[in-house]
Amino acid sequence: MRAAWPDPRLRARDAFEVNAYMLAVIALHGLPPKGCRLASYPNHHDFGTYRTLVLHIDDEADPAVAAYAEAVEEGLSSWISACFSPPVEYDGCVATVPRRKHSELVIGALLVSRPRPDGTFAIPDFERVHTNLTAAFPEAAEAARTRLAA
To answer: Would the CA dihedral through 83, 137, 30, 122 be positive or negative?
Structure first.
C-alpha cells in the first residue's frame, strides 16, 4: 500500500509549485507546439506522492516538437531566469506560498520583464520572457499593463 501526503494542503502546495514551474518554462520557451504538451505527472512512492513536470510528445518526427523538447530538457536554472519569484518559499521545514494565484506569478514576471518607455528591454532575455508570456496569457498581460498605468 502506498502512502499519500497526509495533509491535503501539502498536495495542493506541491501541485501549485509544479504548475508554477510549467508557467516559468513557458516564459522561457513559449507554449509547446502542436504535437506536444506540458503536464503535471504524479509520482507515487512509499513516502507519498510528488509531482513532476513532463512533456508529452505525440509527434516525435515534427522538427518543431523536437526543438521544443530539446530546449526544455534541462529545465530552469533558477526561477529568476524566467523572471519569476519563487512560488513557494522554504524556511527549513516550513513552506510559505506568498502569492496564491498563478496569474499573480505571471503578472509579476510580466512586470519585471516589461520594456522601457522607449520599447527596449533592460536585459535581452526580458524580451523573450515578456513576449512568450504576453502571447500565452493575454489576460495577465492586460492586467500587468493596467497596473503599470495606475
So the answer is: negative
Structure-block grid coordinates of residue 138: 493575454
Closest CA to 39 of 66, 10, 72, 2: 72
Burial environment of residue 143 by CB neighbours within 10 A (0 to 12, 13 to 18, 19 or more)? middle
Centre a 10 Å sphere on the Cβ of residue 79 and count the other Cβ atoms it contains: 17
* Cβ–Cβ under 8 Å, residues 20 and 99: no
Contact residues for 85 (Cβ-Cβ < 8 A; gap 6+): 79, 98, 99, 105, 108
Whole-number Å distance between alpha carbons of 109 and 69: 23
pLDDT in tens, 17-53: 999 999 999 999 999 999 999 999 888 777 777 789 9
Tens-digit pLDDT profile for residues 53-87:
999 999 889 999 999 999 999 999 999 999 999 99
Q: What is the pLDDT of residue 3?
A: 46
First-to-last CA distance in the chain? 55
